[in-house]
UniProtKB/TrEMBL annotation:
Domain (PLD phosphodiesterase): residue spans on this chain: 86-112, 229-255
Enzyme Commission number: 3.1.4.4
UniProt source species: Candidatus Acididesulfobacter diazotrophicus
Listed name of the protein: phospholipase D
Enzyme class per UniProt: hydrolase
Gene Ontology annotations of biological process type: lipid catabolic process; phosphorus metabolic process
Keyword 4Fe-4S: no
């Protein structure tokens, strides 16, 4: 199942939590949304064993209030110490129970579900759930993960090659991303693909990324800016003819090689078409 925000709102997240029966693991960069916290609280009252793990120092944020509110739900709570270093983050956005997983682009805050373009994907694939469970348990316990990663998952550190394979797939690709950044392998792949690439970024993109845009435009990459008053592009997606990517990864060196990030590769034609249609609608609203 694929959900598109802000259209879908917070309901899919709350429904996922409400459907949990025995356990629920949540790993998200930032969590402050009241309906989600309330759903967690009710899940614990039903007897669900809830574990929540967040980043300890989201960029330019103090999270003392957020930590206090999470603890008040009664959930088991940890800061991800495996990625608690300078300029390194637990930037993942996923949750799972014993039979379903949700992977997406949204932080769990009000803006994600009311103002942002975000994508959330749910799966019942047992192998994906098993991989995510092992990753979560390692990070939650503060132990380096060295296990098997399902081939459909895109997990950082070490996600560069899978993102390059998304860019290099035959045919045109459509990208929505909050930022670009100077990471030579990614920029070279985009430049090489040239006019077969369309990219949507928010109009508030940094001056540094504006330089990256000018570089890519020299290679005929098509780039448009989405006005923030329309919708804020926080999504991280690559959509091609054969497969699509949704995840927490920005296309920067740190995101792909240092952070904890989680994404998913989708091969379902119906969902790929849904993503393409949304991209085309967004493209038409850009400038």
């Amino acid at each position: 199942m694929l959900y598109i925000m802000p259209n879908a709102g917070v309901i899919p997240i709350v429904r996922f939590i409400n459907n949990a029966k025995r356990d629920l693991d949540v790993n998200v960069y930032y969590l402050s949304d009241k309906p989600i916290l309330n759903a967690v609280r009710y899940a614990i009252k039903r007897g669900v064993d809830v574990k929540i793990m967040i980043d300890g120092k989201p960029y330019r944020m103090s999270i003392r209030k957020e930590k206090r509110e999470i603890k008040r739900t009664g959930a088991h709570f940890e800061i991800d110490k495996m990625f608690d270093r300078k300029y390194v983050f637990d930037h993942a956005k996923y949750m799972l129970d014993n039979h379903e997983a949700l992977i997406g682009t949204a932080n769990f805050d009000w803006s994600a579900f009311h103002k942002n373009r975000e994508y959330e994907y749910t799966t019942y694939n047992k192998n994906i759930i098993s991989s995510l469970k092992n990753i979560f348990n390692s990070d939650y316990s503060g132990v380096k993960f060295n296990g098997h990663i399902n081939h459909n998952l895109v997990v950082s550190p070490g996600a560069t090659q899978k993102i390059l394979s998304m860019i290099d797939q035959p045919g045109s690709i459509d990208i929505e991303t909050e930022e670009l950044g100077y990471y030579r392998p990614i920029l070279s792949a985009l430049a090489k693909k040239g006019s077969a690439v369309k990219i949507i970024v928010p109009s508030s993109i940094s001056n540094y990324d504006k330089k990256i845009i000018r570089f890519l435009e020299k290679y005929r990459v098509k780039i448009r800016l989405m006005p923030a008053r329309t919708v804020y592009i926080h999504a991280k997606t690559i959509v091609g003819r054969q497969k699509a990517f949704i995840g927490s990864e920005n296309f920067t060196y740190t995101s792909l090689n240092k952070n904890r990030e989680v994404g998913i590769i989708i091969y379902n034609d119906q969902l790929i078409n849904k993503l393409k249609n949304q991209f085309n609608n967004d493209w038409a609203r850009c400038r």
